[in-house]
Amino acid sequence: MERNDAQYRTWLELVGDILQQPADASMRHEEQLLDLLTESFNGACTTRNWVSQKWQDHVIACWPWDYLPVGPPGDFTVDATTQPLLRWYALTDQAKPQSLGRVPAAVAGNRLKQEWDDIVRPWGVSKELAIPAQMEDSDHSAYVISRPDRDFTDQELDLAFLLQPILAGLARHLALASITDNTSVPASDCRLTVREVSIVTLLSSGLTAQSLARRLRISPRTAEKHLENIYRKLDVGDRLMAVRRAYEMGLLTPPAASIQLNCSGHPPGGLR
């Protein structure tokens, strides 16, 4: 229950952060959204997928960004003839969350499922849960959480149903479902997500990784993952260097004690 409460609070914070930002700032939240989905469902990775009119699947974004290979082997094409979960959506015209393990044999038999498992098992994505974000006209997009070992539980499917309206709304707000712009943030881009900036802010107050985990009510492993991502983006090796770099980049505001007073003896306007 405590973990669920922490998840719900994190999702509310994320939605609030995104809705306060202009839609053209969507890429700042891309990794944060995918990372939170991965964490919420104990996944190995999460992707944002767009499906063409021919029911061919295209991975537009992935987190962790280097989890999947660049492309499928050879001339292999992921479409409704090869991917059981995609076949289920194509044949049933459903728009609700679904896991690969729940696709009935009448839609995708054991042979097709085994062939797909043979292909993706080396990638660690043999178990999948799809949460459609847009299923209108010819535009189909979804978030797909994957892991290598076990199917998704009924409780996780219930969570997917709860999150689907949120993801659909965010997709429209951020224009994530649009195929007119397939650009993505390079892996070398050092921009931090809103959540990562908040973590750096906590680091600047002297919190350790364990204290950070307790403050955010996340596992120490998740806290370490966040720190690794921050260090990679800022090209630093520890939290002290990360804080220093954040100040240099203007991501953090200098402490109030270091702000010079104006001629009236008060801090500049707007500071409290």
Automatic annotation (TrEMBL):
Domain of life: Bacteria
Keyword Transcription: yes
GO molecular function: DNA binding
Keywords: DNA-binding, Transcription, Transcription regulation
GO BP: any one term: regulation of DNA-templated transcription
Limits of the HTH luxR-type domain: 185-250
CDD domains: LuxR_C_like
A Pfam family per the record: GerE
Name of protein: LuxR C-terminal-related transcriptional regulator
Organism: Arthrobacter sp. K5
